[in-house]
Amino acid sequence: MKKVLVVGATGLLGRHAVAAIADSADVVTASRTGSMVDVDITDPESIEAMYAGLGSVDAVICVAGMVPFVQWKEATGEDWAIGVASKLMGQVNLVRIGAPFMADDGCFTLTTGVLAQHPMPGSSIATTVNCAIEGFVRSASLEIGRGIRVNAVSPGWIAETLAGMGMDPTPGLPAAEVAGKYREILESADDGVVIPAMRT
Ligand SMILES: NC(=O)c1ccc[n+]([C@@H]2O[C@H](COP(=O)([O-])OP(=O)(O)OC[C@H]3O[C@@H](n4cnc5c(N)ncnc54)[C@H](OP(=O)(O)O)[C@@H]3O)[C@@H](O)[C@H]2O)c1
Question: What does CATH list as the number for 2-197?
Fold first, then answer.
């Protein structure tokens, strides 16, 4: 079975991503706490230590990364720095540092989000970070080599998240359906693409 590292495995999407691939992969879970492997993706040394401990992997799925949702006037430099260090550079470094540990023809799948294409008040940090991730995916796939693929899933609002915010979950997609996209990418030949996972 292929060894697949899921970073952010304790989260809403992470738990469902693990369930979606569990029957076809040897899954290694990672997050800051509560997983098989502890990692903080904002810390390159922590990422390096994780990969060194694992040895080679066949695929990495990242569903981790924090990005503050703050109105423009209230957003501080620290809010911007958190989004860039966590969701953007955390994922970039998972690929950059992880590439030597990735098997030939392996696959990195990152996570972006609908706010890249559909900004709303309060989303400037998320929109900026998501657009950067999408650019990274398209460009990294050109150069990374050894048949390694780099893609991203772009979830819309997830139904469980809307329900948790006290909102109507109907416009959202259930986390299990979004998670299915991570499995589809693993089993596909997709490279350098961003796959939407949202209601149309
Ligand atoms: N939920 C939605 O509606 C929605 C919509 C569009 C896009 N997305 C994107 O989907 C991704 C996952 O969302 P989610 O709702 O599943 O989030 P979540 O439930 O908050 O889970 C986040 C996961 O990432 C881990 N994590 C957070 N910071 C980390 C760090 N610095 N290092 C390592 N692990 C870290 C968390 O565990 P620890 O805290 O223990 O580390 C947890 O396992 C995010 O990128 C989010 O922006 C979500």
Answer: 3.40.50.720
